[in-house]
Amino acid sequence: MSPILNPFSLFFASIFTSNILLANFLGMCSFISISKDMKSSNGLGLAVTFVLVITGMANWAVLHLILIPLGLEYLRYIVFIVVIAAVVQILEMVIDRVSPALYMSLGIFLPLITVNCAILGVVLFIEIRAYTFVQSIIFSLGSGLGWWLAIMALSAIRKKVDKAPVPAGLQGAGITLITIGFMAMAFIGFSGMLQVQ
Amino acid sequence: MFQKQAIMRKVVYSLIPISLWSLYLYGWRVLAVTGVVFGVGVLSEFVMEKARNKKVSEAVLVTSALLALSLPPGVPLWVAAVASAFAVVMGKGVYGGFGRNIFNPAITGRIFTYISFPLLLQTTWMIPGGFGTLGMNGQATSSSIIEAVFVLLIIGVAFLLITKNYEKKGFVLWTILGSVAVTILLYVITAYSGLLGPEIDVVATVTPLEIYRGATGETLPAAYSYLRENSLLNLFLGRRSGSIGESSILLISLAGIYLIYTKTANWRMIVMTLVSAALLTGILFFTGAMTRLSPMMSPEGKTLLESLEMITKFLFSGSLFFVAVFMSTDPVSAPNKPSSQLVYGLLIGGVTIVIRVFSGFPEGTSFGILIANTFASLIDEVMPSPKKKAKAAAPAQASAKA
């Protein structure tokens, strides 16, 4: 939309002011379930960041080089998901080969990145806000790092909370959701600071 | 009745001078707000701890005191009640009570109401001085008898539950009747002695931080004259509008020194918060980034001394000192390692100033604390643990070299 968008402010905006998790609430399911363990959170954060950057670039190229010239924009949702699925499949094979331990700890959630709403969300944001190629790389990288940062902060908090005598009815997902609420409350402070579009 | 906690007591002592000063600034409203916050806070804590068969901790007094002092003086009392209940139940209770909270309870209550009822918390400043007789701004009515009854009823019920005298026959009735009687008496006395202040007079007043932002064009001369009236000395002594306890830099600094001296509070967080805020303000000011707030924050046409004065005024306004001394040092929600405490303070100060200058909110201290709380556990995980061996080895190496 706006080529004047400062790349630095876009980068910091996508990490902090419009954090994909805490401001847009995308990618919540794996955020809650994986954050139990710090090591897998780290791995998943890395995986999400990686997938985001790759799919961000790939889908931008597909949209602007194939779909729009051929007038096939109405197919974009299906195509986006297919591209994401392909990238995740490749990533899964790579991780299985490089680090079997990480592969085991990520378990079902690695294939689930395919349907992680954060990924599709970022791809759709890129489309709606009409970012340029470079902007979409910056935005997807920032969003991935923001997601990574948020899940690391939550898993560190959960490590502490797990030892606390939380009321029985709130243990597990309940107290985690409350914690996420507080985190989101903190991030409201950044609202209205930077423009993402 | 209470679980004894020496550290928490010292914090309460250090808050006494600040409370007395706020009494001079805003009068009866301070008592009302503090009463409601304490009543509801203790009551919520009692309910939460009853389920665990534990006593009410003294920490709830600190939480209530800090929350009460961080609210605007003209805040409607039901908002104060909501803030207090949220702070104690959601900020602390659900995490398992004292010592387990991830986020600073007082701040969670403050932010929750700040986000939910922004108008009620941003427009209820009072003109400081004269025991609150100078009136207040817009929205809220000044004290009303219903509010006063509300205060004493809550305090009465809290008192009843805690002293466990509610089993005795007739005690409940007498407490309620007594509360009402005392309230009416108090109201009549204050109303006729003029201590209550003008009931309907609406006097618009804003905090210095709101003056610094948004003053452009036509409002600029008024802002400049306001700036001159609010001299550095006035800001330092605390003769300015703002939240109940945030204004007096002098008293807060003294309390901070007392807390550091008695080893109740950790100097690292206080110093780092202030230093990082000051440095960032300086950088933003001299690079001209603060001009986006208002042309009067521009470094152009100012001598070095005037620039420094402007920066100091910016730091002295708002609740930066109050938060640095009392909120950032909460031992429970802060990280434990010395190195991570430095980073924690840095984060609070930095985020505060960034929000003050760039975001839509005039004040960022509460958000700064909440964001630092969010990352406190992570900072603690990431920072290298203080190696006792290394410390022991370092002098040995030094002596070996010598």
Fill in the keyword field for this structure.
heterodimer; A: 197 residues; mainly alpha; B: 402 residues; 2 domains; 65% helix
Topology at a glance:
The complex is a heterodimer of chains A (197) and B (402).
Chain A: H1 7-17, H2 28-34, H3 38-70, H4 76-98, H5 100-106, H6 109-112, H7 117-128, H8 133-161, H9 173-188
Helix pairs in contact in A: 1-8, 3-4, 3-7, 3-8, 4-5, 8-9
Chain B: E1 2-3, H1 6-26, H2 28-51, E2 56-57, H3 59-70, H4 77-92, H5 105-116, H6 118-122, H7 145-163, H8 171-193, H9 208-212, H10 220-229, H11 232-237, H12 249-261, H13 267-286, H14 304-316, H15 320-327, H16 338-358, H17 365-382, H18 388-401
Parallel strand pairs in B: 1-2
Q: Could you please describe the fold and organization of this structure?
A:
The complex is a heterodimer of chains A (197) and B (402). Chain A has one domain (7-188). Chain A contains nine helices and no strands. Chain A has helices at residues 7-17, 28-34, 38-70, 76-98, 100-106, 109-112, 117-128, 133-161, 173-188. The longest helix of chain A is centred in the first third of the chain and has 33 residues, at 38-70. The radius of gyration of chain A is 17 Å and the shape is globular. Chain A starts with 6 loop residues before the first helix and ends in a 9-residue tail after the last helix. The longest helix of chain B has 24 residues, at 28-51. In chain B, α12 (249-261) runs parallel beside α15, α13 packs antiparallel against α15 and α16 (338-358) packs antiparallel against α17 (365-382). Chain B has 402 residues and is mostly helical. Classes of the chains: A mainly alpha (197), B mainly alpha (402). The interface between A and B is medium-sized, with 28 and 35 residues.
